[in-house]
Design goal:
mainly beta; OB fold (Dihydrolipoamide Acetyltransferase, E2P); 81 residues; five-stranded antiparallel sheet
């Protein structure tokens, strides 16, 4: 399944992914494949499996796909002449 990270709480290590079909799924940072702190970026496209639980579905085995999304503001560069 595919989707995008729409929320991430860095201190608590959890967030939500919105699937391509519009469903929102919980995830924990421990399910991210190539995770390197603090590289969880909003709008990052991901691919994952869904685990069915009594409390609701959750995303597992999450892998980044597509372009790497940078969080924060763009750095501006100026030509020095």
């Amino acid at each position: 399944m595919k989707g995008k990270i729409i929320f991430y709480h860095q201190v608590k290590g959890y967030g939500f992914i919105k699937t391509d079909s519009g469903e929102e799924l919980f995830f924990h940072v421990s399910e991210l494949a190539d995770y390197k702190p603090p590289q969880v970026n909003i709008n990052q496209e991901v691919e994952f499996l869904v685990q069915k639980l009594d409390k609701g579905d959750k995303a597992i085995q999450i892998k980044k796909i597509g372009k790497e999304v940078q969080s924060g503001r763009k750095k501006e560069t100026r030509n020095q002449e």
